[in-house]
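Just curious: can you write whichever protein you like plus the matching C-alpha cells?

***
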Amino acid sequence: MDKEYSSIVFGGGCFWCTEAVFRNLRGVISVMPGYAGGLMVNPTYEQVCAGDTGHAEVIKIEYDPTQIRYEDLLIVFFATHDATTVNRQGNDVGSQYRSIILYSNEQQKCEAETFIEKLNEQPGEKSIVTEVKSLDQFYEAEKYHQNYFERNSDQPYCQIMINPKLEKVKAKFHQLLKQNTL
C-alpha cells in the first residue's frame, strides 16, 4: 500500500535557510527550493533576484501527515523567520524574500489563516504580514541551490545565517527532529 503524502509551499526569506531547517524534521519526505507566487513562466534565480517576476524564493515540502502535522510545520515556519516585516528577512531585501504560504487545498488555507489570526491576537506582538494564497505553479530552483547547506556548510553565509537557525530548531523543536540530525 502506497502512503499518502501532502505538500505545502513556504517562503520565508532565502530558500537555502528554509530548506536546511525543514529537511531535518521527522515526517518530511523531501524539500525542494524553488520559485512561486509570481507570474513569469520558468523564472531563473537571476530574474527572481531582479524583482521583476513577482515570485518569491520558496520551498516545496512533501511530508507524511501521519508523522508530522501541518500545524507543526506552521509552528516551525513562523518560529524560524520574521513574518512581521514586508519583503525582508534580515539583510535580504526584496519581494522575493517575502513571507508567504502557498496552499494546495482549502483546509491548508483555513488552517494557515486561523494560525495567523491566533498569532495576531497575542498582545504586544507585531502583526503578521505573511501572504496566504493558492499555489498556481512551483518552479524548481537550479541544481546548485538544491541541498545548498549540506554541500556548502563551511561557507560564511551558512555559518552566519543558517547555523543559528538550525541551533534554534534543535533547541526549540527537538521532539520534531529526525533521528541523528543536527
In short: The radius of gyration is 15 Å. The chain has six helices and eight strands. The beta strands are 6-12, 28-36, 56-63, 88-89, 92-93, 99-103, 131-134, 138-140. Helices lie at 15-23, 45-50, 70-79, 106-120, 148-152, 156-172.
